[in-house]
Specification:
single chain, alpha+beta, two-stranded antiparallel ribbon
């Protein structure tokens, strides 16, 4: 179980990039990636648990073996996980999971994190934090998926169920949704910072074309917003869980096409598209979303988080090579 990796809001509106693929994790848990990031280690987490959830204070506590940039993750005993936001924007999204996941879980075909406790801010840690049920599985790795077509169908089944879930009057707006034009400034700035790293001319042309696409017209539905490899778990050859719903909300679901380029090979990409019945304009918008997210992520994590940056490079390569419409 791991947590989403995102980029601070002050860099580019509401842009929050992808998760990290598996990598080393140290204790103390972090090399600071964000200016406001507090020190988080097992000592702090033990003190928080002892003070606020004493029924669990005797359980073993170990850092999760993923280098995350949004939340610090610990396994607490065999059945629980502790997640502490590493930055203010992540802390601000915690309430979405706490309130909405129990209400959505029974409508979804695979397990999602189940909150069992919400910790309070205290001296030494400034934000609310979560205790969740542990979910077993491994993150899928692009290029190493035994049956990518099966995974494509599993992902499409999850999205179909999520989009069909009841949208009540209290549902919040998705944090990743809306017109591509709202991402234009951030995307162009990122392209400028990547000269000599990527093919900026072709990338700019593809982005310019995407901005001329028609806007989505469908009804607002539930949107996950961050279906990166690090937020997916597989067991065997099947999707076994979906993680990190911090960006959850209702709106245009185009951003949830992200796995087509962040994870699936071309041989499975079409199966994913067909299972969701995606039209040409929506497919091109989804490809542009994936490109924009990766472009903004890459310069921010290029030196501080090489595996995460490598996933962004993978997305850029896949998008530029994909000419399907």
């Amino acid at each position: 179980m791991c947590a989403a990796a995102r980029t601070p809001d002050h860099l580019h509106d509401d842009d929050h990039p992808y998760d990290q693929l598996p990598g080393p994790l140290h204790d103390p848990l972090h090399d600071r990636l964000h200016d406001e990031e507090p020190a988080i280690d097992t000592g702090l987490v033990r003190r928080l648990i002892a003070a606020q959830f004493p029924q669990w204070k005797g359980l073993p506590l170990t850092p999760v073996g993923f280098a995350t940039t949004d939340n610090a993750m610990f396994r607490l005993g065999p059945e629980l996980a502790v997640r502490l936001p590493r930055a203010a924007w992540a802390a601000g999204n915690l309430g979405r999971e706490q309130y909405w996941l129990p209400r959505l879980a029974r409508q979804l075909p695979v397990p999602v994190p189940t909150p069992v406790g919400q910790g309070r801010p205290t001296v030494g840690y400034p934000w609310s934090w979560s205790v969740l049920r542990w979910l077993d599985g491994a993150n899928p790795v692009p290029g190493s998926i035994p049956n990518p077509v099966q995974l494509a169908h599993d992902l499409a089944g999850f999205l179909t169920a999520l989009r069909s879930a009841d949208v009540g009057p209290r549902a919040p707006a998705a944090l990743r949704s809306g017109p591509l034009a709202g991402r234009d400034a951030a995307t162009r700035a990122a392209i400028g910072r990547l000269r000599g790293v990527i093919d900026t001319e072709t990338t700019t042309a593809l982005w310019d074309k995407a901005l001329r696409l028609p806007e989505p017209t469908g009804p607002a539905v539930w949107v996950h917003g961050d279906l990166s490899p690090g937020n997916l778990l597989v067991t065997g050859q099947r999707l076994s869980a979906v993680l990190d719903f911090g960006l959850l909300g209702t709106g245009d679901p185009t951003v949830d096409l992200l796995p087509a380029w962040s994870l699936l090979p071309p041989s499975a990409r079409q199966a994913f598209r067909s299972a969701l019945a995606v039209d040409d304009a929506t497919w091109e918008r989804g490809r542009a979303w994936a490109l924009s997210l990766a472009l903004v992520q890459l310069p921010y994590y290029r030196t501080t988080n090489p595996p995460l940056a490598a996933n962004a490079r993978h997305i850029v390569r896949e998008v530029l090579a994909d000419r399907s419409v």
